[in-house]
Q: What sequence folds into this?
């Protein structure tokens, strides 16, 4: 795959909102509001999802990351949640305030006959800035750090090899700080966070941060997109 050099500036958004600030500025009821124009699509059952592989990534606000992976061909379902820490049953308020060691993360269910783990790693690195420590766009804190999780030695090798390629090709102007971490457990986030970008298109953070980030990914990775996303 041809590597695409992304200027650092495109990742630094001059938005006054952040994923974290929602805890301070909105009530839970407000966060749960959804657009009346959104058509809900049936979710796959747990039994149906068992036939697919899973991958786990963290790269900033999970609303953004979920929407990006949902647009990728071969991806069957994506859930927002928390991973990378040791505390049990983390909540959004605890994680967003940095009261745990978890990061906002996503669980990706995918069909390996359509898209490979290697390609998902390419999606991960191509859709965020892996050189900003504990930060992604306007979101700051270790809960927004960049993490590529691996479940076995093969996945670890794929991630590390891809990082080596990116650095050898000087794709980014600064060193990659992404953590390569063995996957332990994924805690699914509260229901109102699932499909948040799609269900809340008028939210200020979604308009100013999430949608522009998704559109940049779609522009640069057209061959990775589902047909209905083009």
A:
């Amino acid at each position: 795959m041809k590597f695409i050099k992304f200027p650092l500036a495109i990742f630094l958004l001059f938005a006054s909102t952040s994923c974290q600030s929602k805890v301070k500025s909105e009530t839970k009821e407000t966060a749960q509001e959804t657009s009346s124009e959104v058509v809900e699509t049936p979710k796959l059952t747990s039994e149906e999802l068992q036939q697919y592989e899973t991958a786990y990534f963290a790269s900033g606000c999970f609303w953004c990351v979920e929407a990006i992976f949902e647009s990728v061909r071969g991806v069957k379902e994506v859930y927002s949640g928390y991973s990378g820490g040791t505390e049990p049953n983390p909540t959004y308020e605890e994680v967003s305030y940095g009261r745990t060691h978890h990061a906002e993360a996503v669980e990706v269910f995918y069909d390996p006959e359509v898209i490979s783990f290697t390609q998902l790693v390419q999606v991960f690195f191509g859709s965020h800035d892996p050189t900003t420590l504990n930060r992604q766009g306007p979101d700051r804190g270790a809960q927004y750090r960049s993490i590529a999780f691996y479940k076995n030695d093969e996945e670890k090798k794929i991630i590390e090899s891809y990082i080596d390629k990116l650095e050898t090709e000087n794709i980014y102007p600064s060193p990659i700080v992404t953590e390569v971490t063995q996957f332990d457990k994924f805690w699914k986030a509260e229901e109102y966070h699932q499909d948040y970008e799609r269900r809340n298109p008028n939210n200020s953070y979604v308009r100013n941060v999430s949608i522009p980030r998704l559109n940049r990914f779609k522009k640069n990775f057209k061959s990775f997109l589902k047909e209905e996303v083009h």
Q: What stands out?
A: The chain has one domain: 45-225.
